[in-house]
Amino acid sequence: MSLERSDVEKIAHLARLAIDEDKVESYAADLSKILGLVEQMDAIDTEGVVPMAHPLHMSQRLRADEVTETDQREKYQRNAPQVESGLYLVPKVIE
I need a surface site. Which of 29, 31, 35, 74 has the fewest CB within 10 A? Predict the structure, then answer.
């Protein structure tokens, strides 16, 4: 797929990008190459190929799920203007 100068200008306008007039042709060529690569990849038969979450066959190392913070609710609620039954009371904002 080949992009024209007007296509690049329209894309830039939609994306709210300011581009230099002298670089529009270069952008059109670069974007056309990218779209050409996507067309090539789209033409490849991927029937039977299992999707991968990562390009390497690895498992993710996970840390142990341990509590590292202490419960400081009482400390934080002492600074609140209004608290009731462990909950912060706030003014009603929706009628």
Answer: 74
Burial class of 8 by CB neighbour count within 10 A (0 to 12, 13 to 18, 19+): buried
* Cα gap 9→21, rounded to integer Å: 9
Q: What is the pLDDT of residues 4-56, one digit of tens each?
A: 999 999 999 999 999 999 999 999 999 999 999 999 999 999 999 888 877 88
CA distance 3 to 36: 10
Token pair in block for residue 80:
């609140």
Q: Three-state SS string across the chain, please?
A: CCCCHHHHHHHHHHCCCCCCHHHHHHHHHHHHHHHHHHHHHHHCCCCCCCCCCCCCCCCCCCCCCCCCCCCCHHHHHCCCCCEECCEECCCCCCC
pTM, to two decimals: 0.51
